[in-house]
Design goal:
By secondary structure, the chain is an alpha+beta fold. The protein is built from four helices and nine strands, in the order ααβββββββββαα. Helix 1 runs antiparallel to helix 2. The longest helix has 17 residues.
């Protein structure tokens, strides 16, 4: 009978105190979330991170999800965990936690969309009250097609085909200062800046 290899000693792997504090603050199965990140990061040091918790409403149930980004010197580790009812027992929850490791050289873009209410009264340096952070590395691409426009004012119609754009948006997170606090918004902007400076080398 073949012996299964011993699991990695996760107690020998440490994460930065700031990352652990953010995981604990989120309060979503912190021991599980920390362990799956440790298993993915391994011996590499974490140089930047972002922890984002989201609450959704599924019929009569309230569901929480957590997404964690951890940037090492070579990779972007993306961890996502959520839970759902165990339909076999009917009484317990099942949690799933998934990690994906993307080489920094493969990250194609980091996009921040700032939402600014009442832009005529914009306060310099505030960068709005909400951002959507989109990170693309080519796993998912979206194609947007629109009928092509003709620039000839005398054109009487006809099929000019389509114009399109291909957008890579593998993951997008919405962070609102109103819902999550200004500190969460600032952390998201800081992480986006850090990751942007780390790719494309």
């Amino acid at each position: 009978m073949a012996h299964m290899p011993a699991p990695a000693d996760l107690t020998a792997i440490s994460l930065p105190d700031a990352l652990m504090a953010d995981i604990e603050r989120a309060g979503y199965y912190p021991a599980l979330v920390a362990d799956v990140i440790k298993a993915a990061v391994g011996s590499e040091d974490v140089h930047g991170h972002l922890v984002h918790q989201e609450t959704t409403f599924d019929q009569d149930a309230v569901r929480r999800h957590i997404t964690v980004f951890a940037r090492t010197g070579t990779r972007l580790v993306v961890a996502h965990a959520d839970d759902f009812p165990d339909h076999f027992s009917g009484a317990h929850e099942i949690a799933t936690a998934t990690t994906e490791c993307i080489p920094l050289a493969s990250v194609r873009g980091v996009m921040l969309t700032h939402v600014v209410g009442d832009p005529s009264s914009y306060v310099p340096g505030s960068l709005g009250s909400e951002v959507t952070l989109t990170i693309g590395w080519g796993a998912v691409s979206r194609v947007d097609l629109l009928p092509a426009q003709c620039n000839d004012p005398d054109c009487e119609g006809g099929d000019h085909g389509y114009d399109g754009t291909i957008t890579s948006d593998d993951i997008a997170l919405r962070i609102s200062a109103q819902a999550e606090g200004r500190e969460a918004l600032d952390r998201a902007i800081e992480f986006a800046r850090d990751l942007s400076a780390s790719i494309g080398h």
